[in-house]
């Protein structure tokens, strides 16, 4: 969990027991629950997810809100969802976000990279780039999503509808 006024910076995350032949439903790599002191100012910056099942989550299970989350320069390959985020009570900033099969497929061999075509086929059948709910004025800029069943899925929120902005989104080869 990432609590309030906390964050992660400069991490590369790899799951050694994850494989394309036996996909394991791990929890979110980075998760904000918005509880207590965890309510405000979380950051995820300069991180790479090589083979996450779920990348970034915020208030997916909880009815609590979070506020002013920053996600910047995050890239990687995800097998279920790149980010699933709900119930943000004030402006968040997400920029330079890229999810694609390329990151794991092109990783050095010690990270057991699968064949890119097989990986893209899997994510096109099983994964969503971004699943966004009730985010108040969250700004998304310079978003790159490739080879997903759905690139961006905006869903009903817990309090309001999505009230953010998306600028310079490049969504390719998605269903």
Write up what this structure looks like.
With 175 residues, the chain is mainly beta. It is globular, with a radius of gyration of 15 Å. The termini are far apart. The mean pLDDT is 93.
For this entry, give a set of tags.
9% helix; single chain; 175 residues
β-strand amount = over 45%
Helical fraction: under 10%
Secondary structure tally: strands: 10
Q: Name the structural class.
A: mainly beta
Q: Low-confidence spans: pLDDT under 50, at least 5 residues?
A: none
Tell me, briefly, the overall form.
Answer: globular
Please provide the ordered H/E string of secondary-structure elements: EEEEEEHHEEEE
Q: Give the mean pLDDT.
A: 93
Radius of gyration equals: 15 Å
Termini gap? 31 Å
Question: Main β-sheet, in a few words?
Answer: 10 strands, parallel
Helix segment tally: 2
Briefly summarize what is shown.
This protein has 175 residues and is mainly beta. 9% of the residues lie in helices and 46% in strands.
């Amino acid at each position: 969990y990432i609590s309030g006024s906390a964050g992660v910076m400069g991490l590369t995350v790899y799951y050694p027991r994850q494989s394309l032949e036996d996909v394991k439903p791990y929890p979110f790599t980075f998760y904000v629950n918005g509880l207590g002191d965890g309510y405000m100012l979380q950051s995820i910056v300069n991180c790479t997810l090589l083979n996450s099942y779920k990348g970034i989550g915020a208030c997916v299970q909880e009815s609590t809100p979070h506020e002013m989350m920053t996600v910047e320069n995050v890239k990687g390959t995800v097998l279920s969802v790149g980010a699933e985020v709900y119930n943000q009570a004030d402006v968040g900033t997400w920029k330079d976000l890229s999810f694609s099969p390329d990151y794991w497929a092109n990783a050095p061999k010690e990270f057991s990279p699968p064949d890119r075509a097989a990986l893209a086929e899997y994510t096109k059948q099983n994964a969503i780039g971004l699943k966004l709910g009730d985010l108040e004025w969250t700004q998304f800029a310079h978003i790159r999503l490739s080879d997903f069943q759905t690139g961006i899925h905006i869903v009903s929120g817990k309090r309001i509808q999505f009230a953010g902005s998306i600028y310079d989104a490049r969504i390719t080869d998605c269903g």
